[in-house]
Amino acid sequence: xxxxxxxxxxxxxxxxxxxxxxxxxxxxxxxxxxxxxxxxxxxxxxxxxxxxxxxxxxxxxxxxxxxxxxxxxxxxxxxxxxxxxxxxxxxxxxxxxxxxxxxxxxxxxxxxxxxxxxxxxxxxxxxxxxxxxxxxxxxxxxxxxxxxxxxxxxxxxxxx
Length: 160
Description:
By secondary structure, this protein is mainly alpha-helical.
């Protein structure tokens, strides 16, 4: 079994490789990303090469600059358990990350998809909050004419 320090070292390498991959995917140079994230260029280079372990704050800045999930970076860095969400509850990995990383979607589309997804998750977590299904309307009986009503013929108008 690997020691904790070995696992942490592996996580640092994987977070650096992942950051470099995401940076290339975003078509940003190292210098551009360092400017966007407010991290020094040499420090970012060392992170990408696996020489430095970034703090959670630095990872959050990088995630914001790359427009990816900070949670994903925390997992890659070994800061967060892959099955735990930020609020401490269990989560199904993948959906949020997939939406955030999808290059075919623009930022507005990602935000809308994530809002819809979150509303579905909330609805399933608390069925009491879910809107009750509307009851079907009773079938209308066919309209019948009263038996006593007779139709009288229309009168013709005469012009004089």
